[in-house]
Amino acid sequence: MIGAEAAVAFYRQGLGAVEVFRNTLPDGVILFVELQLGSGRLLVSEETPTLGALAPPTLGGSPVLILLEVDDPDAVAGRAVAAGAEMELPVQEMFWGERYGVLRDPFGHRWAVTTAREQLTPDEIVEGTAARPYPPATG
């Protein structure tokens, strides 16, 4: 099992997170570490089955895709991969008007790194969905 300290280190190095607050149980188990990540917050905890805190490997994967909007998704994805993430979908221009990519961190969590390029209407996005395959071809 990879612990919360490793996760906090990855999120700092790979995604630029800043630690805001840490709370530990009397036995030293990390109850949570609150991280500032862009304009949002992320809580990281040790896997603690007695508290219902289970990690993606224990669950057989993660059903969640965490969206991280950044100024430069290419740079963030590159930094995350250098820190140990795996790229699932390379960062590229998408038909819905964003530069977008998907990566999996070393703990099994999936992240979409994105930035808006153009503001499309819902009708334009639906038209683009029908006209282009997802995920777009790479290469």
From TrEMBL:
Domain spans labelled VOC: 1-116
InterPro entries named in the record: Glyas_Bleomycin-R_OHBP_Dase, Glyas_Fos-R_dOase_dom, VOC_core
Any matching Pfam family: Glyoxalase
Family annotation (PANTHER family): BNAUNNG04460D PROTEIN-RELATED, VOC DOMAIN-CONTAINING PROTEIN
UniProt-recorded name of the protein: VOC family protein
